[in-house]
Amino acid sequence: MSRRNKGGAKQADERDYDITYPPNVKPISASLNTEELYTRLKNCCKQLSELSQDVTNILYQPLAWHLSEPAFLSHKDRKVQLLTACALADILRIFAPDEPFQDAIRIRTILNQFIVIISRIKDTNNPSFDRYFYLLEAVSQVKTFNIVWSLDEKSSQDVIENLFDMVFKTYSSEHSNKVRSYFLDLLQHMIVESDSVSQPVLDIILQQLLLAAGDASRSLAADLVRRTAGVLASCINTMFDQIAFGLQEHTDEAGSVLTQDQMYECIIELYDISPGVLTTTLPQLEIKLKVPELKERLRVFKVLSTIFCKKDSNLAEENKPLWKCFLGRFRDISAMVRKEMTSFAARCLIAHPELLPDLEPELVGRNVDPDESVRLELASTIVTVAKRNLYAINANILGLLVQRSRDTKWKVRSEACLGLGLIYKRSQHNPVAPSTPEHTELLEAVNNVKNQLLGLYRCENNDDRILIERIFCTSLVPYSLGEVERMERLLAFQSALDECASKCLNQIFQIQSRVRYHLQALLRFLGNAEGSQANHQVKTCVQSLAGFFPEANRAQEHLKKLYVQLQSDKQMSKNLDVLVSPQCTCKMAENAIRAVCVRIGDGLNPTPYYELIRTLLERV
Questions:
Q1: If I label 135, which of 19, 92, 465, 546 is the partner at 20 to 30 A Cα–Cα?
Q2: pLDDT tens-digit profile of 141-164?
Q3: Helix ranges restricted to H, 74-122
Q4: H or E, element range at 313
């Protein structure tokens, strides 16, 4: 019967008596008008859905051949197409696990048309949505698409690619969990029950992982990877070999459409989804860490640093050789890689403080790095970690920051000094009781920071002196504290200083007093500076003030400009009078400085004049 219908579809259409229909179903013919054809197909679907697999399925083989004709399955009316597909899906259910066609071309045509029809489930407001859902449910539960394995390899892969492409393009956040589940079941069957996953299908899955985090297709692909991790692992490893090591051109199979950058991004996403799928892939990154190309080493660094820094990552413990090889990049010949590795240390210690013993020797090595940017990054790294969790570092690491406060480069010194001041301020504001001897040692080192910072005031560099004065006022004894609390803090602070630091603090107060004295003198000359002698006094006063700043000649020009502005701006002069007054409190000084700064420029885009005058006011 099967061979007769295979060769004579037209005969089957004309001789309806050769076709067995379910009970109470009228003959179905392409010659019927659309309305009547729709009515008969609807009844046929209803009757077929009620039949069990116990019936003699061979009876409905001619009907299966008949309905699979293009006149029905590709009818101009979509409702007729849908009903025909539902009827065929039920016939295939009755025949399962066999199939009634035994004709490759017909099977391929039916499956491709199923894919087209199921894709219309995308519109959740479609009046026929329930019928589309029924079709999806039927082909998923019965594993209808398993008949694809009866086709030749190329045809079967074409159908599977079309199926995967359709599902990811069709599924959206508007669909119910049931639709999601059936889509996942459909794709899972295709992966689990196949000998291998073709490269195009793997590309389709991985491309979804590169979509935005909230995308529905990305979420669907992630769940599919979790379900099929065991099968996908070897396929992903092969794909990585082909892309990362340039083996695609040495194989006859189609290569991946993903670039190297996309492949590395996929590795990060896959680790988040199912780390087990990368069991054989990640160890190969050790080879890529040692390649001579800088760009490639940076690519691999980005992948591994992201994975190592994940809060729930155990890769450093699970793969010690890879972790040790990665740490070796702290000694990379490229300063750019060393800098990136130093930056990585901050993220890693915040997420995994337990890795400090491994990272400490590498950070010690970067402390004397010949490249300024690396040493600057080291200072920034230590400060960043200490701000988030002081106990994520130890006394030795804090000592590295103290050493950088004496760096030969200004940027590194300032970053280290400001960081030390911030760490000290936080330890005083939010003291945390030590729970281990290491914590006690660290807190003692933090408490000694005040001596280390004030000791730097002995240098003759005005930039460093201004920096230490600013740190003293903002971090060591913050000006923002209330008057009583500030005095109590200052008394306790001064009494705990060592001899050298105490002398430096007295020197700070002396410099502050001298700057205030010269500014008071300049203000007294306003409106009274007439004649050559008075002009000489003003000039002498300006020169004295300029001596407290780096680049004294340029500072003189800015101070002369300030004097001219004060002569015409009485309100600005009054604010400065308040600032130099012995009765001025910290709050009054803060308001006066703010008022003056409004008149000398824009704080968002400060000019050299603005910066120097603000520094002058802060030193008063």
A1: 19
A2: 999 999 999 899 899 999 999 999
A3: 78-95, 104-118
A4: none
